[in-house]
Design a protein that fits this description.
With 330 residues, this protein is α/β, with parallel strands linked by helices. The chain is 40% helix and 19% strand. The chain has helices at residues 9-13, 32-45, 75-85, 95-98, 118-121, 125-140, 152-164, 194-226, 230-239, 249-254, 260-274; strands at 4-6, 21-26, 50-55, 89-91, 144-148, 170-174, 281-290, 295-296, 303-313, 316-326. The strands form two sheets. The protein has a six-stranded parallel sheet, with helices on both faces. It is globular, with a radius of gyration of 22 Å.
């Protein structure tokens, strides 16, 4: 399809609108993860709607020593991929269009949730992110805006901003897209050497190890509830790989569904091993959090959670996460 490249909000506002407008916000260097977002936006907008992809490298999101200057700028390739994925418009404003008076004196503040995890590692990052998202929501005037779940804390903060500040827009999260080896797609993956990439696979491996431990414990709990007799219960639990000692009736009855501590431990073991590789993985954080506020969950937690990790391999910082639900069978 023909994709129109625009650089001003006036040009975008002048376009006739019939159906819903869905927006995908990016900093460019588009890859298959972005393509998935655009295709999802196309389906959401429908044949009569409009899909707008924004391309803007936001300087407010980069702290001192981060990779603003070397962040890839590939607008021609971005327009091509956006069009092939179903975008009607690529909106690529200049810095003066987004910040006409220079750096804004009034900004969105992310609050306590923006000071945890990514916010602690990158002070001010989420204030800059929310400020540009608010600006782009006003400039593009969408009915819906789509964001990847790989940036789980970012997605949670955008949802909170839209709710707290009464933005009239639907926020849609789209599952993380991974490469065949499990590495979450990111524009920063291109910075990795072959050896660094092998080390970087520990991020997704750690998450999958935590996920597997969670699934095994949930299966154990479900099986324990189904078997009424103490002896039969012990045999059933032993059959799915748990020791007979773990099948004690009282222990099973009082065990925490899913065991957050065990999930963390399984993930950390993989990361600890990766720290001894060459090149090593340097862990920033591993966290198992409540997605409503990104605080660590206790061992008696039930409900939705996010297992998140951030680490450096060489000079490249990567993040990843997976959603988990604790006590689903309760």
């Amino acid at each position: 399809m023909t994709t129109t490249l625009l650089s001003t909000a006036a040009e975008l506002h002048a376009r006739a609108r019939a159906g819903r407008r869905a927006v995908v916000m990016t900093m460019g260097a588009l890859h298959e993860g972005h393509a998935t977002l655009i295709r999802t936006a196309r389906a959401l907008a429908g044949p009569d709607g409009e899909v707008v992809v924004t391309v803007f490298v936001n300087p407010l999101q980069f702290g001192a020593g981060e990779d603003l200057d070397r962040y890839p700028r590939t607008l021609d390739a971005d327009v091509k991929l956006a069009g092939e994925s179903g975008a009607d418009v690529v909106f690529a404003p200049g810095i003066d269009e987004v910040y006409p008076g220079g750096e804004p004196q009034v900004r969105i503040t992310a609050g306590p949730m923006g000071e945890r995890l990514e916010g602690a590692s990158r002070p001010g990052h989420f204030d800059g992110m929310l400020t540009v998202v608010a600006k782009l929501l006003h400039l593009t005037r969408p009915d819906a805006a789509l964001y990847g779940q790989k940036d789980a804390q970012q997605l949670a903060l955008i949802r909170r901003m839209v709710r707290d500040l009464n933005f009239g827009v639907e926020i849609v999260g789209v599952p993380t897209v991974r490469e065949e080896d499990g590495l979450a797609l990111s524009s920063r993956n291109r910075y990795l050497s072959p050896a660094e990439r092998r080390t970087a696979l520990a991020l997704s491996s750690a998450l999958f190890a935590g996920q597997d431990r969670h699934a095994a414990q949930e299966a154990l709990r479900a099986r324990a509830r189904e078997v009424p007799a103490t002896r039969a219960r012990a045999e059933a639990l032993s059959a799915i790989g748990e020791s007979r000692a773990a099948a004690d009736t009282h222990a099973v009855a009082t065990a925490v569904p899913g065991g957050p501590s065990a999930v963390r431990a399984a993930a950390r073991q993989v990361l600890d091993e990766a720290a001894r590789l060459d090149p090593p993985l340097v862990l920033d954080y591993l966290a198992l959090v409540d997605p409503s506020d990104f605080t660590e969950i206790p061992d008696d937690f039930t409900g939705e959670a996010v297992l998140a990790v951030a680490a450096r391999v060489g000079t490249t910082r990567l993040i990843d996460n997976i959603p988990l639900t604790f006590g689903a069978a309760s």
